[in-house]
Amino acid sequence: xxxxxxxxxxxxxxxxxxxxxxxxxxxxxxxxxxxxxxxxxxxxxxxxxxxxxxxxxxxxxxxxxxxxxxxxxxxxxxxxxxxxxxxxxxxxxxxxxxxxxxxxxxxxxxxxxxxxxxxxxxxxxxxxxxxxxxxxxxxxxxxxxxxxxxxxxxxxxxxxxxxxxxxxxxxxxxxxxxxxxxxxxxxxxxxxxxxxxxxxxxxxxxxxxxxxxxxxxxxxxxxxxxxxxxxxxxxxxxxxxxxxxxxxxxxxxxxxxxxxxxxxxxxxxxxxxxxxxxxxxxxxxxxxxxxxxxxxxxxxxxxxxxxxxxxxxx
Length: 314
Ligand SMILES: Nc1ncnc2c1ncn2[C@@H]1O[C@H](COP(=O)(O)OP(=O)(O)O)[C@@H](O)[C@H]1O
Ligand SMILES: [Mg+2]
Hints:
By secondary structure, the chain is α/β, with parallel strands linked by helices. It is built from ten helices and ten strands.
């Protein structure tokens, strides 16, 4: 078997925050011992509530931040040990699309500037006609090349964000909540575009979202995170969840109106502080199936076709 395009092993990230004259700095694990793989051409989803470590995982995978522990292999090469020049060459093959298309685009730039920036960073000349080609690929008119981001709608700006990510023809793209700040109708158009680009360009995606309904629609396999750790890997979008947390997410995830969806508290009970995690399962305090074992012992992700980190899976 050939190695998957992305192979993440036992990845952890610890953040230190606060601290001052009288306060001791506090440490928390934003990502805890995460292992996962993404095969070539696959779309793997990462889902979980806000603050569970999705963006931190995204940045670790592209080595935009350094891990506290663990490794990320890209096409057989360990990125964690790569010197800067080799990392820069490797970065050509990976890209990221961010949630907020506005804050990730420099307002002083024209779209030509935005789309030629990846070439500048790599120290490569911009091929003739490339800007028009990229705008065309994401469904924007060539005449927009001289526009500035503020002249565009939210959906158009995210199309620019996607074009910029694809400028250097990467193999792998991390999509970090790419539609979270868009209206539902625009969201559907962006998802359709991403799906079309994946087919045409043979891309591999890691698709991050807090919306399990959306992830189930778009992804081949789904990783569910809770407080920095993987609690379940759904082997197919249609798989029935086994973890009580994923079940609770599903129960709250199919309200079509995003405003109403946000109003729903997805799971009852209080989320423990990431600065002070309980000794057992992090979900035990909110879980209807929890027993004494769950409160004292941390369940590991099982080694099964449908892995779950739970002593009493469904
Ligand atoms: N640079 C940082 N310094 C300290 N804490 C951070 C930093 N980045 C993220 N965190 C914390 O790590 C946790 C996970 O954050 P994040 O990865 O952004 O979650 P998500 O993308 O799932 O909403 C949060 O508690 C957040 O406050
Ligand atoms: Mg995030």
